[in-house]
Each structure stands twice: as C-alpha cells, then as structure tokens.
Amino acid sequence: MDILMTLIDFILHVDKHLELFVQSYGAWVYALLFLIIFVETGVVVMPFLPGDSLLFVVGAMCGVGLMSYPLAVGLLLAAAILGNQSNYTIGHYFGPKVFQWEDSRWFNKKAFDQAHAYYEKYGGITIVAARFMPFLRTFAPFVAGVAQMTRSRFTLFDVIGGTLWVAGIVTVGYFFGNIPWVKLHLDKIIWAMILIPGLVVLFGAWKSRRKTILHFGSDTKL
Description:
Layout: H1 2-12, H2 14-25, H3 28-42, H4 51-63, H5 69-98, H6 109-130, H7 136-146, H8 151-176, H9 180-184, H10 186-221
Helix pairs in contact: 2-4, 3-5, 4-8, 5-7, 5-8, 6-7, 6-8
C-alpha cells in the first residue's frame, strides 16, 4: 500500500520530484528519464509509469534552463523507440508459442491470422496513436510482435509515433509548462492527461463491442 501511495504521489507531483532530482544529481537526471521511458514502453508489465506527464514536465524544465532541450528530446526519443523495439521483440518471440493451442478459444491459428491481418492493415496507425494513450502504448508494440507485424513496417511507425510523442509533448511543456495558471493546476492537468485518453479508449472499446453484438444479433435473425 505504501509503495502504491508513493507511486501515485510521484505521478501527481512529478514536477517537484524531478526538480529536486535535477538539483541533487545534475546530469544523472537524463539517465533516470531514459530508464523510465524505456521501461514504460519496453516492459509490458510497467504500463503505469508517468510517460506523458514526465515529458511535459521535462519540457517545462527545459524552458527555464534547468535541462537541455535537444539533449532531453534526443535521449527520450531514443528510449521510446528502443523501448518499443524491445517490447515488439518479446512479443515476436512469444507469438508463435502463444498461438499453438489449437483447443484454445482465443489463442489459436485463426486468432493469430486475424491479429496478423489487422496489424498489417491498421498496425501503423495503431502504433502511432497508442503513443498518446497510457497503458495502450505499452501493450500495442507487444501485440504487434505477437501478431508478427513486419519488423520494417513496425519500425517505421515506431519512429514516427515516438517522434510525435516525445518531441510534441516536450515542446508543449517547453512553451506552456511555466505559465503560472498551468503550474498552479498541474496536478489536475496530469489527471486529465491520464484519464481523457483512457476514457477515449473505453468508449472506442464499448462502441466496437456494441457494433459486434448488433452485427451478431442481425446474423442470428437471418
């Protein structure tokens, strides 16, 4: 319970914790940030790390000269791309093993073929869009690997999505993170960055499930 509360406190007050770390350890902050972004995007069991809010706060610190903008963007972009590549590789390795169970309802050859076809057709936009959605950005590259999405195609959209995500949010933080109103309400902004994408995902899942149920119902009547 104490660990959970510490994690929540870190996520909601990442600006204060990060500023303290910069003042105490200087350039070592870049190594810490690289590790956090790499682990969030590269380890499928670590989707709760504060990627979006961390990037925003890094941008704000670059804006007041506490950190180097080009160095921060370069290192965090490398962490985001390499993290996704690691996650994809894990999924790619385990994919064939996962879908060997012929008697399984979900993990069978038909399910694999459907997942592979989806990622070959829509995998690009999925990888890019998932960058901006907490939790999904951790699972999307893993599933792409499981579905055996072509490595070159995955890498292309990994780089595009990573660039938009890292450079985009850090730049927004650089220009807007030190506005007094933003600093005063940063905890609420962080909550919004966490909840809004999550609600969008839930709504999309509900809509997709509803469409499937309606389609199944119409087929049954026929």
